[in-house]
């Protein structure tokens, strides 16, 4: 796991410092933005490793059915952390995705087939 964390940190820092002279926006990162990239790399490593570790304890099909929570958490993060203003169609679309995924998850958990 430690190796994966260092690889993701390296990727985030390298991607943040890549220079493209044709890019109309020239980024100048300060230490705070590098800290955010390192936090993002660490969180993405954990986010990628947790489903792998969860397979040790349950079936892969049941774990995959809970992936809709990732969409929900990202959407709520956009709203509460970044102050994103939602529109009615976005809320309806998110509700449809969450509802269908929840029904799928419940059907998988209640099924008796091996």
TrEMBL record:
<feature type="transmembrane region" description="Helical">
    <location>
        <begin position="91"/>
        <end position="109"/>
    </location>
</feature>
<protein>
    <submittedName>
        <fullName>Uncharacterized protein</fullName>
    </submittedName>
</protein>
<dbReference type="InterPro" id="IPR037185">
    <property type="entry name" value="EmrE-like"/>
</dbReference>
<feature type="transmembrane region" description="Helical">
    <location>
        <begin position="36"/>
        <end position="54"/>
    </location>
</feature>
<feature type="transmembrane region" description="Helical">
    <location>
        <begin position="66"/>
        <end position="85"/>
    </location>
</feature>
<keyword id="KW-1133">Transmembrane helix</keyword>
<keyword id="KW-0812">Transmembrane</keyword>
<keyword id="KW-0472">Membrane</keyword>
